[in-house]
Amino acid sequence: MLTKKQAREQISAARDALSHEELAALSSAVQRRLFDFTPFSSCAFPMFFVSFRSEILTEGMIKQSLATGKRVAVPVTKIKERELVPSELNDFDAELAEGAYGVPEPKPEFLRPVSPLELDFVAMPGLAFDRSGNRLGYGGGFYDRFVSRLRPGVPLVALAFSFQLLDSVPTGEHDRKIDAIVTDSETIVFNRDNSVFRM
Asked: Which of 21, 92, 116, 125 fits a 20 to 30 Å CA distance from 150?
């Protein structure tokens, strides 16, 4: 099995090799699947990550969510406190600027912190995933800590390219599993006992 370092390097290289056109086309395919996914289409207040570098593009998903009347939160990274704070976003184009680690975040004047308890869906980023629901993040542990503050049963759903699905992902004792993954080619639900996922 790959080490965490090897898996991160392998998937990062594959993502970085995508052309802008490939990135846009694959992201659009994920977006279509996400909006057809009942746990997402029925949610009222999702949190999305804002794309960084060669991550799957979430701009279109965020804009479509706002256009259909959903409230949308995006994470603000508090490096010193080692935590994520969800902030409500109203205008993707006007309200974001480069933040922690170079990831786009709301500008100070557009910070609207909300309680994690208000969220009813979380789109999870990550580098690699497997078919048991394991997730390999970027190594900071921000999301693993954040999800412990959500209401029980809130769907944790990864958005990823199909090549980010590996046979097995190395995990540690603090790594939180995801409930489902939406890729450009399939939607996989892991947590079938959760009533949220009775399709």
From this structure: 92
CA dihedral 99, 100, 104, 110 (to 10 degrees): -50
Q: What is d(CA 116, CA 76) in angstroms, rounded to the nearest whole number?
A: 12
Residues 6+ positions from 106 with CB-CB distance below 8 Å: 74, 76, 87, 89, 95, 96, 97, 99, 112
Give CA–CA dist 193/196, Å, rounded. 9
For residue 22, what are its two tokens?
Answer: 């490939």
More confident call, 191 vs 115: 115
The total of structural domains in the chain comes to 1
Predicted model pTM: 0.92
Q: For residues 98 and 149, give the distance between their C-alpha atoms in angstroms, rounded to a whole number.
A: 26
Q: Judge contact between 65 and 71, C-beta under 8 A.
A: no
Its sign, for the CA torsion 192, 184, 46, 75, is positive
User: Residue 127 belongs to what domain range?
Assistant: 4-197
The Cα 61–Cα 27 span in angstroms is 9
Looking up tokens 């990135």 gives 23
Q: Mind listing the pLDDT tens digit for each residue in 136-178?
A: 888 788 898 999 999 999 999 999 999 999 989 888 777 789 9
**3-state percent breakdown (helix, strand, coil) of the chain, nearest 5:** 35, 20, 45
